[in-house]
User: What shape does this take?
Amino acid sequence: MKTVIIIFLSTIMLFTLSFADEYVVISNSKMKDLSTTQIKAIFLKKITVIENINAVPVNLGARDPIREKFENKIVEMNFERLKSYWAAQHYLGKRPPVGMQSEESVKAFVKNVEGAIGYINANNLDSGVKVLYRWSE
Assistant: This one.
């Protein structure tokens, strides 16, 4: 009986791990493939043009859990550090990325605005966007 319970619990753990949350950085189909370094630079507005197309980074709301994961993984800054970064950039005339309140609005914006780039949960993908990068947690 012990063996059956151990096998059962092991199976449940493996099943749960195989469904770890997966996230994607997306753009419209016209955007070229980008490295994570380029994606980071776009979201920090260090790169503003890619092949004659204005790059338009799109964030989820300030305390959205997916945004937090994106900023930690791709931008490599936490909320407080980014807040300080954008306060300093304000004096240089730079504004932070456009903010959206939902993954659906990010996806709609990316589909309809040339050069837009955002991030969503991979479960919300559809054929209207191009995946630039995937990661899971």
